[in-house]
Design goal:
A hairpin with a 5-residue loop joins strand 3 (44-48) and strand 4. This protein has helices at 2-22, 74-77, 166-175, and strands spanning 28-30, 35-38, 44-48, 54-64, 68-70, 79-94, 102-112, 118-129, 134-148, 157-162. The strands form two sheets. Strands 1, 3, 4, 5, 6 and 9 form a six-stranded antiparallel β-sheet that branches. The chain has three helices and ten strands. The protein folds into two domains: 1-26; 31-175, no CATH class. It is α+β, with helices and mostly antiparallel strands and 178 residues long. The radius of gyration is 22 Å and the shape is elongated.
Amino acid sequence: MKFLKAGLVAGSMIAIAAVLHACGGGAAAAGTCPKIGVLPDAADNPVTGPDGEVVALARLSVQHGTCIYDKSNASRTGYSKVRFPMTVRVSAARFQGARVQDIDVEYVVATVAPDGVITGRQTYSTTIGLSSATNFEDEKILIEIPYQGNGEASQHRVVAAFLIDRETVALNRSRLGR
């Protein structure tokens, strides 16, 4: 009986290894994630109505999954890549007395190299229904960052930010005490 169990376990392990090899799993491994977050100066977006009065406040937050590295081409091309899932949440709260039923917001997700150069940028837009006083929308994004060498991409950054004007950035900075 022990031999049968050991045989089943060994057979299962061989099958799992074959599946991972077929999927390219042998060249990929989890590692240290880049710095991931929301740009504080552009994390809040006061939404105005047609008369210019603020009717709602939207706020960004992010979460990410495991960072998986693929260094299989580093010796041939000089580049590796890291990829991970990221969820961007846009939360919104309608101001008391405001009659808005939904709001539209735009935000950007950018990848930034250690030297500060933006290496990728994608703009997203979403509508958040406000039939209740608060609500949120999640956007699931797959981030992939190619980088030079076969080390880790821990010095790269991924930032999310609302697309807002200079006055709103100044307002957010003053709220943050800067």
